Amino acid sequence: MSVLNLEVKRLTAVTPSIREIELTADGALPAFTAGAHIDVTLGNGIERSYSLLNDPAETHRYVIAVLREVDSRGGSTWVHDSLREGDRLVSTAPINNFQIDEAGETHLLIAGGIGITPLKSMSHRLLARGANFSLHYCARDRARAAYLDELTSALGERLTVHLDGGDIARGLDVSALLSKRAAAAHVYVCGPAGLIRAVREAARDWPKGTVHYELFRGDEADVAPRSSDRAFEITLARAGKTLTVPPDKSILEVLRANGIKIKTLCKEGVCGTCRVGLLSGKADHRDEVLTDAQREHEIQVCVSRALPDETLVLDL
Q1: Per-residue pLDDT at 222 exceeds 80
Q2: In angstroms, rounded to a whole number, what is the distance separating the alpha carbons of residues 74 and 59?
Q3: I need a labelling partner for 115 at 20 to 30 A (CA). Which of 54, 143, 237, 304 fits?
Q4: Which domains, and CATH codes, for the chain?
Q5: What does the DSSP assignment read for 182-241?
Q6: Tell me, what's the pLDDT at 151?
């Protein structure tokens, strides 16, 4: 794969926590299609994948945006604290694993937070084609919704904004949105694992190849529909018990059925109350509150499960 030597032409704070980077080179850049990303080697040696958010018709620049992650593993922190205009970065040529199926008659774009970046590029392409599409943009509040003014101006009624204030129950009703599929419709989603999973669950009956998603962080299991749940075992280290969690029950329900009291509030993985120590075993984390670091040693027992063929050892 070819290697590109890029210059940081411009840095822009598009929100307090999102930094836009405009990258150029000597001469025209390799063309890209909407939904593409580049793998960038940062100045600290870390490689990260970033979606291209600008119009694919542009050949003179690539534009990416980087969210400062609370649990950054070194990538976003370096971009926000150390990257400067005039710096040079090495990247791959554009790669696209999240392409628009232009044979579709209707395109439904769903973005969560920084997941807006590839879908913004898609909206440029779909507008240029005069395609039938809409964009649903989910964010906590307006201050964190990058490019909202630009998208509102460009898309008009094609754009619907869902500001949940941190309560996903007040956000986009994915099930209702996808309950009826228009003829030859395709859905595209990028954002938190919980949003991707919700879309895949709601569209589980859509034809194969019509549900498209982008996943940079985490594992495929993080976004697997819950309809694929299977039984697994949990071992309670302090109690010396091993219990089976069936496909239709949560860890929380099994614990309570065996007389083990766990404090809970929402039972939906959003409040963080029912977290339990995870001593070993690989978990299928389905909550919306734990950081990557916390997930190494904690689990939300109301919603999360074990990955296939894993036994979870809990600090109970």
Answers
A1: no
A2: 30
A3: 304
A4: 3-92 (2.40.30.10), 106-226 (3.40.50.80), 229-314 (3.10.20.30)
A5: PTTEEEEEES-HHHHHHHHHHTTTSPTT-EEEE--SS-GGGG--GGG---EEEEETTTTE
A6: 97
Q: Do residues 20 and 64 lie in contact, with contact meaning Cβ atoms separated by under 8 Å?
A: yes
Look up residue 124 and give its DSSP letter: H
Q: How many whole angstroms separate alpha carbon 145 and alpha carbon 18?
A: 9
Give strand pairing partners of 299.
Answer: 276
Percent of the chain clearing pLDDT 90 (strictly above): 72
Candidates 188, 178, 186, 191; CA nearest to 213 is 188
Give the separation between CA 250 and CA 80, rounded to whole angstroms: 40
Q: What are phi and psi of 294, to 5 degrees?
A: -65, -35
The whole-angstrom separation of Cα 287 and Cα 289 is 6
pLDDT of residue 223: 67
pLDDT tens-place string over residues 98-113: 999 999 999 999 999 9
The residue behind tokens 């840095």 is 11
User: What is the C-alpha to C-alpha distance for residues 309 and 218, in angstroms, rounded to an integer?
Assistant: 18
- The pTM for the full model equals 0.73
